[in-house]
Amino acid sequence: MKVDVTRNPTEDDLSLLSHGLRSYNSQHIGHAATEEDVRFAVFARNGSGKIIGGIRAAAFWGWLHIELLWLEEDVRGAGTGRQLLSAAEAFAMKHGFFHSRLETTSFQAREFYEKHGYEVFGELRDLPQGFTSYFMKKALV
């Protein structure tokens, strides 16, 4: 056996790993383990069509996973984040996902998410160094 580390794995190699894990998981949780992730994005655009913010997300096993939410500085605090989050949650519920989870750090948007119904269920100090990462969840029903 040889173990190697690569910074440039091929899509085929990554797919092989995903397929292997889904196959294993299906032995424990059935059909849900073999379903593909529902990957999607929600964008906010200005009048000329330029992206000024957005959400990158995935959903699987009944849960929406907000991978990231970003807004340009000058639109923060104007309700754009709320609109993006609402759109992502509505999309997830329409497709049968009724819980949401995300991660944010102490210098980012914990209060924003709490204001929109998310609660901390775990934290990890010094990720990144000197800060805390918060793991948050919300029931979408």
TrEMBL record:
Q: Which domain of life is it from?
A: Bacteria
**What region holds the N-acetyltransferase domain?**
4-141
First and last residue of the signal peptide = none
> Do you know which Pfam families this protein is assigned to?
Acetyltransf_1
Protein name per the record: N-acetyltransferase
**What organism is this sequence from?**
Desulfoluna limicola
